[in-house]
Each structure stands twice: as C-alpha cells, then as structure tokens.
Design a protein that fits this description.
By secondary structure, the protein is α/β, with parallel strands linked by helices. The protein is built from eight helices and seven strands; from the N terminus they run E-H-E-H-E-H-E-H-H-H-E-H-H-E-E. Strands 3, 4, 5, 6 and 7 form a five-stranded mixed β-sheet that branches. The longest helix is centred in the first third of the chain and has 29 residues, at about 30-55. The protein is globular, with a radius of gyration of 20 Å.
Length: about 280
C-alpha cells in the first residue's frame, strides 16, 4: 500500500476483527492475530506516513477504536485489549491532546470551538437526539461542518433482519429490539427532519452501500448474541443461544460464501453546515 500511495494527508486506521470467545478458550495464536490486525496494521502505516506529514508540517492520523477500549467486554477480552492499545498508540503519538469525557447532550466545550464535528454510529443511542445535534451545532464555528453516520433501515441489512426475527421467536421481543436499536434512524426522512428541527442548515443525506464479512455464520451470530446483546442489558441463557445458532444455520445459509460469510449493509451519512 505504501509503495502505491507514498504520501497521504489523512490516515484513517479502521481495520479490525472481533469474535466472541470465552477468555479461557483464546489461544496465544489468536491473541497474536488480533494484535497483528487491530493494532500493528495501524502502527505500521502510521510509522510509514508520519515522517511525510512532519516534513509538510501538516497531517492527521486517526485510530478508530470503540467503547470496548474503556468497557472491556467479558466475552471479547482480546478484542477489547486491542482497542485499548489503539488509544495508547494515539495518545503516545499526540501527548498534547486534551482527552475529555462528556455527554453528547451537554458537550464540555464553549460555543464555536470547532471547524468540524463528526459522530460515527452514535446518534441513534443518545438519550436526546435533538439536543445532541443542537450541541454539535453549538460548538461549531460559523461555516463549520458536521458529519454524522447512522445505519440504514434494518430491511436493507437482510442478514440482521433475519437474525432479529429469530431472536423475537426464540428469546422474545426485548432481545430482538436490542438488535433493532442500531438501525433506529434508518428512515432518511426521519433523519433529515431530526437535523432540520434541531436548526441545521444545508442538510445533505447520502446512502453508502457496503458489505459485512465474517469468517463464518457462527462468528456473526455469536458477536451479536454474546457481544452486543449484553451491552444492551440482555443476557441470554446458553440453551437459547445454542438454539439460535442451530436455527441460524438454515435461516442464514444464503449468506455463506466460499471464504466465509457476507451480506450487504448500508449506512446514511448526514452532513450539514452552520451558517
């Protein structure tokens, strides 16, 4: 990659793998694989591109971590460890950065503090979405830009839709609703209205198509039932998980590929400016 693209102004390290595995069942080789992919991939690229950025006296290096860096998931300790390591690398490269904890609905910054505000797949989980958007606009300078990513409607992520229906049948509506939650702002009209009601100007919506890939069906399902559902306060008993995995073999068979498991998924990118 570095040979083909020798210089960049902005490097975004977003490569990552995850899997729900009990701690005692994670072998050394799997720990090394997770660290190699999730951490060292970004370290190597940062090491390659940082000198050029310094020579031009401008550049940005972003490590896309996750909440698992601070709240280590008990079913994915190896994954959480790599996310914490990403934060350590970022903080080491930029010791002058002032890291702040705060609520999206009450950002700990004065008015007109930033040229750009971004939010990656978080808006749907905020307790007061209108207030959160108003806060984004408040801390932007006039002419500043805002970019917010949310998942498209679950109907456009067919594998998730099938899994949600299976959860409804086996584990009950609360479990299904927990997996529906990330797709809560999938309706473009609802999303646009939310920004306009909060006072955003020049709102633009773009839908970006992509694909989700997993080593196999089991990893996809376990990531959701053992990884995501507990985050949402839903802990399923093992017999239910076993039944979900067994029935998913048939329901999700169409998404099996020669090298794993894959399905289409899309997201909306909402952008706006403050006048």
């Amino acid at each position: 990659m570095v040979r083909e693209v020798p210089d960049v102004d902005v490097l975004v390290n977003n490569l990552g793998i995850f899997a729900a595995v009990p701690f005692q069942d994670i072998p050394d080789a799997e720990w090394m694989r997770f660290f190699e992919v999730n951490v060292l991939s970004g370290v190597r690229l940062a090491r390659a591109y940082l000198p050029g950025m310094k020579s031009r006296n401008w550049g940005r290096i972003l490590f896309i971590s996750s909440e698992s860096a601070l709240q280590i998931p008990v079913e994915m300790i190896h994954y959480g460890t790599t996310k914490t390591a990403q934060l350590a690398v970022a903080r080491g490269l930029a010791p002058g950065i002032d890291w702040r904890d705060g609520a999206a609905e009450a950002l700990p910054f004065p008015d007109r503090s930033f040229d750009v505000v971004v939010c990656q797949f978080g808006l749907m989980f905020f307790s007061d979405r209108d207030k959160a958007i108003r806060e984004m606009l408040r801390v932007m300078v006039p002419g500043g830009r805002c970019a917010v990513a949310v998942w498209d409607a679950i109907e456009n992520a067919p594998a998730f839709a099938a899994l949600v229906n299976l959860l409804d049948q086996i584990a009950g509506r609360p479990a299904g609703d927990a997996l529906r939650a990330p797709f809560a702002l999938g309706d473009r009209q609802v999303l646009a209205a939310l920004f306009k009601s909060a006072g955003a100007n020049s709102v633009n919506l773009a839908t970006c198509d992509g694909a989700a890939r997993f080593p196999d069906m089991r990893e996809f399902v376990e990531a959701e039932v053992r990884g995501w559902l507990p985050v949402m306060g839903i802990a399923l008993p093992e017999p239910q998980i076993d039944r979900i995995l067994a029935e998913a073999e048939t329901i999700l068979a169409r998404y099996a590929t020669a090298d794993g498991f894959a399905f289409d998924i899309s997201a909306h990118l909402a952008t706006c400016r403050r006048h």
